[in-house]
Write a structure and sequence with these properties.
With 324 residues, this protein is mainly alpha-helical. It has one domain. The chain has 9 helices and 2 strands. The chain has a two-stranded antiparallel sheet with strand order 1-2. Keywords: Cell membrane, Membrane, Receptor, Transducer, Transmembrane, Transmembrane helix.
Length: 324
């Protein structure tokens, strides 16, 4: 009971936290999703406010020139900020204007779970524990972003011009945590699908192996039980494929903007590190701190790109794996 209570507290904390970020403008009631009109108004309001903040930030960015920055790097950074803004606002608007698709994803998961039970696939055992682990990973990602963001903001505050713009940058940078939450949720859903496809492939390998002839799968056309079993397996695979298509379609635009923004800022981070190695100005605390943070951001973005590209690819590989 203690573990159940802890898991429930963690899950509810994450649920209301994501609500605050604008990623859950709905209510979960008796295993069903219901759109909240208050959530819709909230998402529209923060989208408008963030758009105004973005316009101010673009003006501030062209006025702010950090050491050894050029007009080209400032312009590229502004372009990266644009795609980050698109990711955040697109995520807020997607969850309200594509509610029906989101609801279908929710229902598809319930359908997949029911089919898994009929096939005795145990991927949904200890579901509460798995939800707790997912929640913990999301909370760790958020804590990491906030820690690096605060360190970055404090370091940049050493420059007088940034101090004048500090409040505007806080209002713009804090909501960017939505970008990492969307990416993390997308990856977690991909991993769930991967485990389902892997369990299905394992089941098929077992049925078509020489170790079993319980249902005569090698001659299933003459056995009704085998035919029914294979029909359910086909339904399970079809449901997983539909779920994969719905999830990728739902997240596609936000992930696209996020990848473009990550590519642009990765190149800028590489350029900043190159400058640091070229000038070797380790004696100045400000420069050393900025370049150290650039390395952290660069590694974070490389890992983000690796997982965003690698995990969906592994899901497709598992879904198309030869099981005979």
């Amino acid at each position: 009971m203690g573990e159940l209570k802890r898991s429930t507290i963690i899950f509810k904390s994450l649920y209301y936290y994501e609500k605050m970020l604008g990623l859950c403008p709905f209510i979960i009631h008796k295993d069903t999703l219901k759109m909240s009109y208050l959530g819709i108004i909230y998402n529209l309001a923060i989208s408008v406010l963030y758009s105004i903040c973005f316009i101010l930030i673009i003006e501030c960015r062209f006025e702010l020139r950090l050491p050894r920055e050029t007009t080209l790097t400032i312009t590229m950074d502004a372009l990266g900020l644009l795609f980050q803004y698109c990711t955040v606002v697109c995520s807020w608007l997607t969850v309200i204007f594509q509610y029906n698709r989101l609801k279908s994803i929710f229902n598809d998961f319930k359908k997949v779970e029911e089919l898994a039970k009929t096939l005795n696939i145990n991927v949904y055992e200890n579901r509460l524990k798995k939800l707790r682990n997912i929640s913990m990973r999301l909370l760790i990602i958020n804590a990491f972003y906030l820690a690096v963001f605060l360190a970055d903001h404090y370091t940049l505050s050493l420059y007088k011009k940034f101090q004048e713009q500090a409040s505007a940058w806080i209002w713009y940078n804090v909501p960017k945590i939505v970008l990492y939450n969307v990416g993390a949720i997308f990856l977690e859903l991909m991993l769930v699908l991967k485990h389902n496809f892997r369990a299905l492939n394992k089941l098929l390998r077992y049925y078509f192996s020489t170790k079993t002839d319980e249902f005569l799968f090698r001659n299933f056309s003459t056995t009704s039980k085998a035919f029914i079993k294979l029909h359910k397996i086909g339904q399970f695979h079809e449901s997983l494929s539909d779920l994969l298509e719905h999830i990728t379609s739902f997240f596609s635009l936000s992930i696209l903007f996020a990848i473009i923004a990550t590519f642009i800022h990765s190149f800028l981070d590489i350029y900043a590190v190159y400058q640091y190695l070229t000038y070797r100005r380790m004696c100045e605390v400000g420069d050393f701190s900025i370049y150290s943070l650039n390395i952290i951001w660069m590694m974070t973005k490389f890992l983000t790109l690796y997982f965003i590209c690698g995990v969906p690819d592994s899901v497709c590989t598992e879904a198309c794996a030869l099981t005979a």
